[in-house]
Amino acid sequence: MLSFYYYREEGNSLPVVSGGSLVLQRGLLPDGDTRKKKRNASAGPVRTGRDRVPTYLYRMDFQKMGKCIIINNKNFDKATGMDVRNGTDKDAGALFKCFQNLGFEVTVHNDCSCAKMQDLLRKASEEDHSNSACFACVLLSHGEEDLIYGKDGVTPIKDLTAHFRGDRCKTLLEKPKLFFIQACRGTELDDGIQADSGPINDIDANPRNKIPVEADFLFAYSTVPGYYSWRNPGKGS
After folding, report:
1. How far apart are the C-alpha atoms of 55 and 207, rounded to whole Å?
2. Which of 131, 179, 184, 207 falls 20 to 30 Å from 105 in CA-CA distance?
């Protein structure tokens, strides 16, 4: 199961991402390999008319879809006490094909230390993404609440994603930055419960003028806070 977390900045700012109102729209492909570029197209999210919840469409018709970095940590130093993550290679392979089919430039990095993970994402954030529509990162590892394991220890997830803030990575400003995290977030087990759908709450999505530095992030976790994340050792997640 994927648990999506969206957040909204208070004050004089645009809504960052609100549940159900993020649409990633692929650019149209011509007969050749290059993407059509619309004249006078807005560089950022475009508000369209909806009765109650406006939709913000990101422009996706850039020359490239963007870079996708997959960090696949399977083996860990003995001092960490972490077991081998059997099945993760199948996940990494499936994700590689998935993002490649979507048009991303995909790289896979296996058994990274905390410093290596930081270095990979820092260098990626310093690249020129002007001709890219978005950026994606997949973290496959052990984890705890707000933490992810490198092969040699833990590092805060926020320290990894912070490299792509609007004030640090200007060429991804107003572009989607997607982070998919397959890792535990605690030790609780979710037994599940059957229930009817609840009512849809109203969402305050009035347009604002100022964009927060952590706008346009999407974090997709494989579990909710405090709980285990499941992985099939033979078939992957």
Report:
1. 11
2. 184
